[in-house]
Amino acid sequence: MNYYRLILSFVALSCFSSCQAQETGRQFLRLEKEIALPNVKGRIDHIGIDIAGQVAYVAALGNNTLEVVDLKKGVVISTIKGLDEPQGVAYITKHKEIFVANGGTGECDLYDALTYKKIASINLSGDADDVRYDEAADKIYVGYGSGGIAVIDAATNKMISDIKLPAHPESFQVDAREGKILINLPDAGMIGVADIKQGKLTDKWKKLLPRANFPMAYDEAGHRILVGYRFPAALKVLDSRTGKELFSSDMVSDADDLYWDSQAKEIFVSGGGGSVNIFKQTGTDTYKLAADIKTPKGARTSLLVPELRLFLLATRASGADPAKLQVYKLKE
């Protein structure tokens, strides 16, 4: 009899803990709407945003399209076709243009954000991937090929610099104030630091384990870079000036996007393993897993939009269930 009471108590405790974690998640993110992405099949890569217009640009890599989504209306308002494995995407604020990096050809295309007509192309050697736009300097940074970051003048749509790297760059963060770029180089087992003016790599922070450092975020004020590894799944926080590891924790598997919310002092990680992890900063170099919010398997592409207090998560099509863009509201 005591044995069965013990089992029932354990089950009740497990249920309570699970419900409590779910409730905690709701305090951080509240699902506002799901926007269907009709006819989108396969893998979805990065998401860009026009903050003023509240329009998201979803790179449907496996579909060879860019989906233009009106977040207020909750519908796809246009689809740009004829792309070749679109990966990186950015909204070029000063010129009201959409920049799309094609992984298949290496071609980077610019479209008018009002007419969706192609207005320019920049050809890189191949595998054009992650994109960053520095609005103050009006420059676009594109990771590409077997090892390079192209620097493009957004006013002329011409490449003005090419930073050579020892491997293909995944996520990278531009610190214009300090004139450097922090770069994930998983195939080389390192994080690289490039000097923007010199146009070259000036430091290498190597690590044997964990491996596969794909997503990265940057706490510029705190001089901390936040790096997500896949094998094994781990979050690492490093001093951005020295590369010294300051914090480590397990996290969701198959992570592809990671963000720092400077207002709330929180880290958001989306992983194909089936959840969004939220870590709350509790001290100068300490962070606590505050929420593990369940999401569809394979939904690893996301975008944090702190200006709108939104978190966007792309889910792939599965059977009769279409691909979707989930729109979450962040706590105020």
What does this molecule look like?
This protein is mainly β. It has a single domain, classed as YVTN repeat-like/Quinoprotein amine dehydrogenase (Methylamine Dehydrogenase, Chain H, 7 Propeller), CATH 2.130.10.10. 8% of the residues lie in helices and 55% in strands. It has one helix and 28 strands. A four-stranded antiparallel β-sheet has the order 1-28-27-26. The chain has a four-stranded antiparallel β-sheet with strand order 2-3-4-5, with no helix packed on it. Strands 6-7-8-9 form a four-stranded antiparallel β-sheet, with no helix packed on it. A hairpin with a 3-residue loop joins strand 23 (266-271) and strand 24 (275-283). The protein is globular and about 45 Å long. The termini are far apart. Residues 1-23 have low confidence and may be disordered.
